[in-house]
Amino acid sequence: MKETDGIRLTSPLDDRTARALRAGDSVRISGVVYTARDMAHRRLCQALEAGEALPFDLEGAVLYFVGPTPARPGRVIGSAGPTTSSRMDTFSPRLIAAGLKAMIGKGYRGREVREALVRYGAVHLSAIGGAGAFLSQHIVGAELIAYEDLGTEAIRRLTVVDFPAIVAYDSYGNSIYTKDV
């Protein structure tokens, strides 16, 4: 893919933008993306259930399922490749219902997640697994904002420029995967 290929997205996303995306579309994301893996997802959902404020606004947000490595000198972040998306399946429907518009990971999503994407007009994006060093070049800012005790899995606010991904599941029930899980 050429550097200029793909639909340009600016995060946070609105309903119209998310619903315009179709499975198989190449996208380039610029703006703010938040990191969150298993334990951070659990804490976000617990906070929602308890009526507590979240460390960031979920409305239109994009979550990247990543636990980046430490930054080398002169860099804002280390290798930042996607983790397996299905590990977040227990939590994703609740976060989507609360306003999350897109997630970035790798691999299949379960039925409940796919149904929530359709119901709330959200999408799931796939990034290239094993390409963390390449993907980190599209991250120009990184700030730890919550759950520091989780180490690499703490929530970070990333600033990304032309971050490459593919729409894996759209808000119409379509998928790039031929196998329905």
Characterize the structure shown.
- The chain has helices at 15-20, 38-50, 92-97, 111-120, 132-136; strands at residues 7-11, 26-35, 62-64, 102-105, 123-126, 139-146, 155-169.
- With 181 residues, the protein is of the alpha/beta class.
- The chain has a single domain (7-169), classed as Fe-S hydro-lyase, tartrate dehydratase beta-type, catalytic domain (fumarase, Alpha-Beta Barrel), CATH 3.20.130.10.
- A five-stranded mixed beta barrel has the order 2-3-4-5-7.
- It is globular and about 45 Å long.
- The chain starts with 6 loop residues before the first strand and ends in a 12-residue tail after the last strand.
The count of domains is 1
The strand order across the widest sheet is 2-3-4-5-7
Give the number of helices: 5
Instruction: Give a short account of the largest sheet.
Output: 5 strands, mixed, barrel
Q: What is the residue-mean pLDDT, rounded to a whole number? A: 93
Number of strands: 7
CATH class: Alpha Beta
CATH names the topology as fumarase
Give the terminus-to-terminus CA distance. 28 Å
Q: What are the secondary-structure elements, in order, as H or E?
A: EHEHEHEHEHEE
Helix-and-strand structural type? alpha/beta
**Fraction in beta strands:** 25-35%
Assign a percent range to the helix content. 10-25%
The value of Rg in angstroms is 15 Å
CATH superfamily: Fe-S hydro-lyase, tartrate dehydratase beta-type, catalytic domain
